[in-house]
Amino acid sequence: MSARTIAAREGAGVVQVDAEVLGNSAVGAYRHLTLVTPGLAEIARPGQFVALAVGDGTSSMLLRRSFSIHRVSPAGTYGATTEIVVAAAGPGTEELTRLEAGASVSVIGPLGKGFPLPSQPVPCILVGGGYGSAPLFWLAEQLRERGCPVEIVLGAATADRLFGVVEARRVADGVTVTTDDGSAGTRGWVSDVLPDLIARTGAGVLYGCGPMGMLRSMSAIASDHGIVAQVAVEEAMACGVGICMTCVMPVADQHGTTKMVRSCLEGPVFRGDRVRWEAFDDGLCRVPADAVGAPKEAR
Amino acid sequence: MTAATPPSSVDMSVDLAGVRLPNPMMTASGCAANGREMHRFIDVAQLGAFVTKSVKAQPVSGRGTPRMAETPSGMLNSIGLQGPGVQAFVEEDLAWLHSIGARVVVSIAGSTASEFAGVARAVVRSRYASAVAAIEVNISCPNVANRGLVFACDPASSHKVMTLVREEVPRGLPMLAKLSPDVTDIVEIADTVLKAGAHGLTMINTTLGVAIDVDRLRPHLIAATGGLSGPAIRPIAVRAVWQVAGAMRAGRIRTAPIVGAGGVRTGRDALELVAAGASAIQVGTAAFNDPTAPERVGRELEALIAERGFTRLSEVTGIAHERFTP
Ligand SMILES: Cc1cc2nc3c(=O)[nH]c(=O)nc-3n(C[C@H](O)[C@H](O)[C@H](O)COP(=O)(O)OP(=O)(O)OC[C@H]3O[C@@H](n4cnc5c(N)ncnc54)[C@H](O)[C@@H]3O)c2cc1C
Ligand SMILES: Cc1cc2nc3c(=O)[nH]c(=O)nc-3n(C[C@H](O)[C@H](O)[C@H](O)COP(=O)(O)O)c2cc1C
Ligand code: FES
């Protein structure tokens, strides 16, 4: 079974391929998958993601699962490859983590808007929570190519849920590790170490990918320091390509107008100060009363 | 990279209440946004018709999240008719669909019967009206005036909506009524809307369900209930089409084209609906898995019809009724 293109219209910036699994190895609590994805790797940017189907066209799990692109190799020995890091969180990701080398999986990507890169060589801090660090190393390389000093902060509940500590040391000028239980690095949350790090490095931008709670506190810390946070969010997505409207979140535009926007199309990367974090609570997100088209109070 | 289709011996064209479509394939409302995103994967102008997300008079934010839950061979959704409102829809979405030469079925919705009529008027009087192949009236949304009761569950309300919309729709433009399966007697509702002037029927919309998050032990969706769609509901769609087409054949209700929707993922699924009585097919949830599905299913359907020795799609429409001996 080798990789096959299913759909790729000229200039669409996205492809649908039946990818071949080249490798699947354990990394701490996660699986690292390498996929042969002709046409995809060539056009991807850090912060973009891919949407994988679970099983074939007869699977009872109909919805695609989204994963940040860890890195791409446009011209490897096997052609263009895309790497992702998968945590077995539920039935779909469990099935995907069992894919063996040689197996076929339907992949759509690259999807969404990636991390915007600064035009000036400003110091940057990249913050990853759990597998959320997956897209950051490739981002770090691109930032350093532009002359930006790069610090990486990796946080997780426990040491085995950290991803990429060794890789971080290779691509960053400094690495800080935090775990909730103290099994590696500093005990605590990434938000505990951020204020000092911002003060010490004079960072102008925070980049983050991880759980919503982490992104929310990162955004607050960035605002306190008068700097920008660019965060890659994770909203439940059914299609990943913009046709189902399931992945929306309340985000304010540059005029301050809040709309329920598709995080798969306008995101997954948003400016932290534009996201209406107060709308999120205990796994739910309510429509802010001032959002465009919000339901009117009791008629 | 769509594979070149070999010249086919099957005539797949459809007569949709006087409007000719080159093939029976459509998207399902709300399952392809308003075209641009799907156009990255397939040329939506090649579909028999593109069906838009249901549009209301004013912008609608839709519900909070989660508004989706995966279920066996399907999903629940409670999007809440999110959309930009008819004015922005016409200027941005319909204008774009017009510019690529798509045949468009505009799905309209409202909380009151007059809202439906207003939306229809704005669409048919717009400067992009030439792209409109039909108006699909989504009477499966709640009627605000009637304490949230769904229009399509109540013959009197659905009659009123269709009557008001019909006054806005010019002659020659088909008006389809989209029916909910959540009714005691779908043939009665079909009869009502046809008497009120509908030229065709789309069956079915989603059917109501609830999923419980068993970790938090509360409903998974922020709205608690959602619409079930996907292959899980296909037998319900086939049943609805079967019952209504049967009533038409028996002369119990007026004859009109039926657009089949519900759980279509493959050409075989589409063929089931066609044999039960559908003249055209909408593909909804399956597109979330495979955005090329509306086009792929059409190719598969054509091959299956050819394999069975037919030369026209219309020969197969409703054939299961002829081959059934109770
Ligand atoms: C942009 C983006 C990037 C992501 N990157 C990664 C990554 O690099 N590595 C990784 O392990 N996971 C990542 N995730 C999360 C991953 O997509 C979910 O864990 C996964 O979809 C859950 O699928 P499941 O079958 O295990 O769970 P189920 O609960 O069975 O999933 C059912 C449905 O809900 C959706 N869903 C459930 N939980 C989530 C969630 N947390 N986020 C999004 N959709 C969800 C699923 O996609 C599916 O459609 C990412 C999510 C998004 C949106
Ligand atoms: C996410 C989603 C949104 C939908 N939105 C609409 C809508 O706006 N108007 C409408 O008439 N039907 C809507 N539907 C129903 C579909 O058009 C279709 O009738 C139904 O999903 C059954 O077809 P399927 O099983 O192929 O999805 C929606 C369905 C889904 C899954
Ligand atoms: S996941 Fe379908 S629109 Fe974003």
Automatic annotation (TrEMBL), chain B:
Subcellular localization(s) per the UniProt record: Cytoplasm
Listed CDD domains: DHOD_1B_like (cd04740)
EC number: 1.3.-.-
InterPro entries: Aldolase_TIM (IPR013785), DHO_dehydrogenase (IPR050074), DHOD_1B (IPR033888), Dihydroorotate_DH_1 (IPR024920), Dihydroorotate_DH_1_2 (IPR012135), Dihydroorotate_DH_cat (IPR005720), Dihydroorotate_DH_CS (IPR001295), Dihydroorotate_DH_I (IPR049622)
Domain Dihydroorotate dehydrogenase catalytic: from-to ranges: 13-304
Annotated keywords: Cytoplasm, Flavoprotein, FMN, Oxidoreductase, Pyrimidine biosynthesis
Chief location category: cytoplasm
Pfam families: DHO_dh
Residues annotated for substrate binding in this entry: K53, N77, S78, I79, G80, L81, N138, N205, T206
Active site as annotated: C141
Binding site for FMN: S29, K53, S54, N138, K178, I204, G230, G262, G263, G284, T285
Reactions catalysed: (S)-dihydroorotate + A = orotate + AH2
PROSITE patterns reported for this sequence: DHODEHASE_2
GO terms under biological process: 'de novo' pyrimidine nucleobase biosynthetic process; 'de novo' UMP biosynthetic process
UniProt key word Flavoprotein: yes
Single GO molecular function: dihydroorotate dehydrogenase activity
UniProt pathway: Pyrimidine metabolism; UMP biosynthesis via de novo pathway
GO cellular component, one term: cytoplasm
Cofactor(s) the protein needs: FMN
Annotated cofactor note: Binds 1 FMN per subunit.
Family per record: Belongs to the dihydroorotate dehydrogenase family. Type 1 subfamily.
Entry function: Catalyzes the conversion of dihydroorotate to orotate.
Protein name in the entry: Dihydroorotate dehydrogenase
Organism of derivation: Janibacter limosus
Gene: pyrD
